[in-house]
Structure formats: structure tokens, C-alpha cells
Amino acid sequence: MARDTKIVNDAQDDSTAELQAQIAQLKEDIASIAATLTEMGSRKINQVKQDAADAYNDVYEQGEDVFSSLKDNACSLEEQVTDYVYERPITSLALAAAFGYLAAALTRR
User: Fold this and answer.
1) How many domains does the chain divide into?
2) What is the pTM of this model?
3) Which domain holds residue 69?
4) pLDDT digits (tens, 9 = 90+) for 51-107
């Protein structure tokens, strides 16, 4: 009977050693998976950052283009008004006086 107990104990020791080896292998596999996921997450974060920076630059450039266009339009309008005043000084003076009178009448009330 002691011999049977020794065989059972040896089998349990072998099973325990095999189970511990499998657990160690699982730990290594989980660590490897975690490292892979971390690397994938880092790459994705970097890609999102790059996409956001590209989108910001695109919007910034579009804003600059719109601002430049508005500035050009304002300069063109200024030139047109200046030309109109030089071509028709009396009409321009009459329009300015009428506008001033209208503005004064509206603000008195």
C-alpha cells in the first residue's frame, strides 16, 4: 500500500509540475498579448494624433485662404469707393450728408 501511495504522489508531483509549466507558459502568452496590444494602441494613438494634426493644418490653410480672399475683397471695395468719390465728389458728399442726417434722426428717438 505504501508503494501505491508513492506512485500516486509521484503522479501528482508530475501533474503539478506539468500544470505549473502550463501556467508559466500562459503567463508568458498573456504578457506577449499585452505587449502586442500596447504596441497596437500606441500606433493607433500616433496615427490619430497625426490625422488630427493634418486636419488642423488643412483647416488652418483654408482659414488663411478665406481671410486672404476677404482681405482682397475689402481692398477692392475700398478702391471702388475711392474711385466713386473721385469721379462724383458732389454726389458722394450729398450721400454722406443724407446718411448722417438719417443716422442722427434714428439715434434721437
Assistant:
1) 1
2) 0.51
3) 2-108
4) 999 999 999 999 999 999 999 999 999 999 999 899 999 999 999 999 999 999 999
